[in-house]
Design brief:
With 366 residues, the protein is an alpha+beta fold. The protein folds into two domains: 16-143 and 328-364, 3-Layer(aba) Sandwich (Aminopeptidase), CATH 3.40.630.30; 146-325, 3-Layer(aba) Sandwich (Aminopeptidase), CATH 3.40.630.30. It has helices at 16-28, 38-45, 93-109, 124-132, 156-161, 165-176, 189-203, 210-220, 266-280, 293-300, 312-318, 337-350, 354-364, and strands spanning 50-58, 61-73, 77-83, 87-88, 112-118, 136-137, 146-151, 179-183, 227-233, 236-246, 249-257, 285-287, 323-326, 331-334. The strands form two sheets. Strands 1, 2, 3, 4, 5, 6 and 14 form a seven-stranded mixed beta sheet that branches. The chain has a seven-stranded mixed beta sheet with strand order 8-9-10-11-12-7-13. The chain is globular and about 60 Å long. 42% of the residues are buried.
Length: 366
């Protein structure tokens, strides 16, 4: 099915009541994700993003929708981004076509020059639909597509048994060595940020400011949708984990380690505590998000790389077992036809240019 753009009345959700209705829809949808919630839009507003929500109704009920984040980028113009969307109560192409038409109308109204849509987890049918409607696969990776997910409906003994033997050993060793894990709160955010920065320096990347995570805390914690786990030894904090419980999934969002106590294995203990908490509180999936894409592709093709060729972060996460999978890749659409042609022809050669690198850097930061 190919979308025909029509003159339509957009159903945008600016009012508090409509926003609450939108969030209920996202939280209850099978593929709902926190990145499509109004609270995530509020967090991203601190980085200059502005949100528009469009949706499709049937008999007064929202059945599909998308939150579009827009940000102006110097020289390039307005870029629109739909992270982990669109959201469907139940996917079908008629609804997808109606929703995509509304997305296009909203994007044009906001003078978006490029739109990037990263479909929700497991929404491969929508990804195929986008390709049939002139969206091209994008090399930009706002949210990593490789992950491993633990099925929390299994007994804890089974989850533990499915881990790599070294991971099981390290979890038990941490317990014998006296590592404890407590639930953190807002007062632990500076500690979390300090450890995150230390981790970023060791691994050669940069991360957000403390103010960014404080805003995330203000938005998500009152609804129980942000949790901190702090691993300690003899009262000294060693590592901190930030998780987002949303829908039926607990997502590992960020982790920071002081660099101390490596032989105590606080990181393994911390994740194990988070996994147990998630299961005890009725969640069905623990998602590690952020595995190296090429490693995942090779694992899924039954050609796993040798352990010494896998990044330390990916190797650590794989140690917990789970279902290794690739979520749909992002897709991009450039609204000016001539620019779209030139962009698709020239992008591979211009990837390192400053203008396009600005776009890539922005989207790679989530």
């Amino acid at each position: 099915m190919t979308v025909q753009l029509l003159n339509q009345q957009l159903e945008v959700a600016p009012a508090v009541d409509d926003v609450a209705r939108w969030d209920r829809f996202v939280e209850n949808a099978p593929n709902g994700h926190h990145a499509q919630s109004s609270r995530w839009a509020a967090v991203k507003a601190h980085l200059g993003w502005k949100a528009t929500r469009v949706y499709v109704e049937r008999d007064g009920e929202i059945v599909a929708g998308a939150q579009i984040l827009k940000c102006p980028i110097a020289i390039f113009g307005n870029v629109g981004y739909v992270p982990k969307g669109a959201v469907f109560k139940r996917y079908d192409e008629r609804t997808a076509a109606e929703l995509l038409a509304k997305i296009h109308v909203a994007a044009r109204a906001k003078r978006v020059r490029m739109l990037i849509i990263q479909p929700a987890d497991n929404e491969h049918a929508f990804a195929d639909f986008l390709q049939r409607n002139n969206f091209a696969p994008s090399t930009l990776r706002a949210i990593p597509i490789g992950t491993t997910r633990l099925d929390l409906t299994q007994p804890l003994d089974t989850i533990m048994a499915n881990m790599k033997s070294k991971t099981r050993y390290n979890i038990r060793l941490a317990g014998r060595k006296g590592v404890t894990v407590r639930m953190g709160d807002s007062a632990d955010l500076p500690l979390f940020h300090t450890m995150l920065q230390a981790t970023a320096e060791r691994q050669g990347f940069s991360d957000y400011s403390l103010a960014y995570f404080e805003e995330m805390d203000r938005q998500f914690s009152p609804r129980g949708q942000m949790k901190l786990f702090v691993a300690e030894h003899e009262g000294e904090p060693l590592s901190v984990l930030l998780a987002i419980p949303f829908g039926k999934t607990v997502l590992f969002k960020k982790g920071g380690w002081s660099g101390k106590g490596s032989k105590l294995h606080p990181n393994e203990a911390m994740h194990w505590a988070a996994i147990q908490w998630a299961k005890e509180n009725g969640y069905r999936i623990y998602d590690f998000e952020g595995l190296d894409e090429e490693t995942v592709r090779r694992i899924m093709s039954d050609d796993p790389p040798p352990s010494n060729e896998i990044s330390s972060v990916t190797r650590f996460k794989l140690g917990f077992g789970g279902d290794v999978t690739l979520n749909p890749s992002p897709y991009e659409y450039v609204y000016n036809g001539a620019v779209r042609w030139a962009y698709r022809q020239l992008y591979p050669r211009l990837k390192a240019s400053e203008r396009l690198q600005v776009v890539a850097n922005l989207f790679n930061r989530g």
